[in-house]
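Here we describe the complex-level prediction in full. Unlike the single-chain runs in Section 2.1, the two entities below were treated as one system.
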Amino acid sequence: MNFEKVVFGFFIVLAATLNFGFFIGDIDRPELHHIYELFAAIIVNLIATVLKFGDRTQIGAIHLATSLVADLQLIAAASVWAFAVHVSGEGMTPATTASVVSLSGGALLANIVSLAILVAETVMMRR
Amino acid sequence: MHPGSAFFIVLRRMRAPLILLIVVYAVSILGLTLIPGADAEGKPAPPMSFLHAFYFVSYTATTIGFGEIPQAFSEAQRMWVTAIIYATVIVWTYAILTILALFSDRAFQQALSAGRFKRRVQRLAEPFYIVCGCGETGGRVLAALDKMDARAVAIDLDENRLAELELEDFRSETPALAGDAAQTQNLFAAGLMHRFCRGILALTNDDQANLAIAAHARLLRPQLPAILRVEHDAIAQRMTAFGATQTINPFANFARLLALAIHAPALYRLHDWLTGTPGTILVATRDPPAGRWIVCGYGRFGHSLVAELQREGMEIALIDQHPLEAPGFTAVVGSGVEPEVLTAAGVASADGLVAATDDDLTNLSIAVAARALNPGLFIVLRQNQQSRAELFAALQPEMIMAPAEIVAHAALARLTTPLLPDFLRAAEARGDDWAWALQSRLRMELGSAVPLCWQLSIDDNVATAIVTLIAEGREVVLSALLRNPSDRSQRLSCVALALRRDEADMLMPEADTSLMIGDQILFVGTAAARAEQELIARNRNVLHYLLTGREETGWLWRAMTRKWSKQPVEHLGQQQ
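The structure predicted for the assembly as a whole is:
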């Protein structure tokens, strides 16, 4: 058993689950999308990205790419939230909530790709 | 260390500090979004939002510190922020220190320079040679290549040597890699598979490494000329097994020359004169005598010498540190510095002495001691280090054997004039009188300074005009390349020594030889003559004038006068 792989897998899966948790629910109802869950998803995604640094295999490069995409999507979602709540002052209207959640949905797709790569890699190892 | 891995090293090393940084930020921000604040009257207020928390942690962690923004903190927040300050600043410092340590890390530096080297080699867009080993020999070869405006790529184990190379005032930049030239990836990085690579020279002082380079060249680029330095016969045989034809053994080379100088002085002088450094005047020394020889030091050089001297029928006495099993020789144990040892070896009645140990100072002291006992002795000194040249010259021995110089000269000759070594070998078969006559003639025509040897290939590289004329069915004779472009009745100061056609060599080709595409001609002469000759070979008008005695103009005129232009050329006279 490779401990590094365990940690790596843990963060990949956790990133995807947190992301899913934030995303699930009616897209325009802010009470169904807790902002703390978005925060946790961002932090775990960032850690997962850093864990992929310095892997020189082809599969490692794809991992890093999908992870960076998820980061971008989540940070965009957080920025939309911060702008709506603090800068424009309109708060979490259904429209804003929808755009925040749909951005996190994009990140979820990238995280699902990450999961698929992880599973494929594990199956390929056969040990 | 794989070239191009610098970026990956940075990423890998930064993993731990970055993850720690993310975790500490996350905990700090989370705390601030949970701990209630206080309004202006000190009443409890809702905690910070994520944006404010992130903003506050960002300027606090980087020690910028704007104060308590957006409003004064509650006591609970202050407690938490105190913890934040320590945690974040420590983590930031850790991350920055990791980056700094990385940049001063040797492995990282090497990875960086290896990456740079690889990129520079890939960008080369002109022919170049790979020189492995930049010691005494490689350094000379690099300097000579630079003088000839040929590009080179250098690999050496020792970074200090490469640093010395950088200080040399080369005209073109030479990409250099600190690494083991026997490693496949280093040879790839140096451009072994590059389409502009014109040859590889293995000049390291490690025969095993040179053998590895030979194997790479033979298996990966079979057509690439590989010139290999080798000092052990066993390794030389293995190189030959790899199909290497261009091995240079400085000891065997010199021993062969010494033997040549004993039995055929004129041939030796011709050899010396043609392979010397162009422009130098050779000092006349006496010829090595036949008779009794003393060899001090029975190592690789000693063995080569003894084999050659024996073939010449010399009587040999050996002096060595270790008791020798050498039947048929007088063998004395000692270093050769002690007068009693030299006397025991018969120095008083000897004709020649070779100080052949691998230690320069020992060789010098042997020479001094032997001179004192027998002033008329012909002394051959082995000089291992270039830095001792002044000492050796001051002693005024009859011959100096510097392995580095021998290898460098031989390697350059094979690169630039591959016909020359073959010409000299063929000359040995012609005998001493022939060599004597040839050298007298050459000195009459070219002066006594060491001339320049060069090769001209009749192909599209240089001899474009000649190729065009031959392709048009015109006859181009060799004498056209020996006349002065501004006045065809005058000769250029150069002589054709050999002509190679279909693997067969013609020694001293006649002036009326018709040239064919693919011919390679070896010339000897002055640098000015070489430049004129290049003009002749490139410029069809000049070539036409030299062949026919008439100027050639445009194609219309050419077409009109074609039927009269087939005029015979009067001969320049026989070359021999």
